């Protein structure tokens, strides 16, 4: 099992406060997940990094969908 899968399976349910603000525990898990995706530690998750992690989790996704996901999540619209 990959490190990402272990983190996702071992984490408690996310703690969310009223008003939609994430509590500290949620931010910690999000940071851990992001750091696992950001393999080259440049502060960005590329399509290749996302595709690599999904394949390690046994999830096969077409390149076009990966690029769409990155584009939707990106503030700049870049991928």
TrEMBL record:
It holds the Pfam family EF-hand_7. This is (Mediterranean fruit fly) hypothetical protein. Coiled coil: none annotated. Residues 25-60 form the EF-hand domain. It comes from the Eukaryota. GO terms for molecular function: calcium ion binding. Keywords: Calcium.
């Amino acid at each position: 099992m990959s490190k990402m899968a272990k983190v996702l399976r071992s984490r408690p349910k996310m703690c969310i406060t009223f008003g939609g603000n994430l509590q500290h525990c949620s931010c910690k898990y999000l940071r851990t997940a992001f750091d696992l995706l950001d393999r080259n530690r440049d502060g960005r998750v590329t399509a290749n990094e996302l595709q690599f992690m999904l394949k390690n989790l046994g999830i096969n996704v077409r390149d076009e969908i990966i690029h769409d996901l990155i584009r939707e999540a990106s503030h700049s619209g870049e991928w």
